[in-house]
Amino acid sequence: MWNGKMLHKKMKRCNVGEADLIAKLREANVHDFNEVKAVIFESTGDVSVIHNNENKKVEPQLLKDVNTQSLFFNKENV
């Protein structure tokens, strides 16, 4: 998930269904998809949810090892 949008192609590559993602969002106490800045599938198998409802920007270091390049340049991921 990136900026409130589910990235179905990326989810499929990670073998994660919509129900699984929504369960993780609930665990992270997300109330609205628009709060979600990023959902990251960590190399450990954990799922990190970065969210806020104040439109704060995400600290770039938090995304240091995350492949985000295609998210900025390729709209096919949605």
In short:
This protein is an alpha+beta fold. The protein has helices spanning 8-13, 18-27, 69-73; strands at 36-41, 47-51. It is built from 3 helices and 2 strands; from the N terminus they run ααββα.
In the CATH hierarchy, the architecture is 2-Layer Sandwich
- Helical residue percent? 25-40%
By CATH, the topology is CRO Repressor
Q: Please mark out the parts with pLDDT under 50 across 5 or more consecutive residues, or reply none.
A: none
Membrane topology: Multi-pass membrane protein
Organism: Jejuia pallidilutea
Subcellular location: Cell membrane
Keywords: Cell membrane, Membrane, Transmembrane, Transmembrane helix
Give the SSE layout.
Layout (H helix, E strand, L loop, with lengths): L7 H6 L4 H10 L8 E6 L5 E5 L17 H5 L5
Write up this protein.
The protein has 78 residues and is of the alpha+beta class. It has one domain (8-77): CRO Repressor. It is 27% helix and 14% strand. The protein is built from three helices and two strands; from the N terminus they run H-H-E-E-H. It is globular, with a radius of gyration of 12 Å.
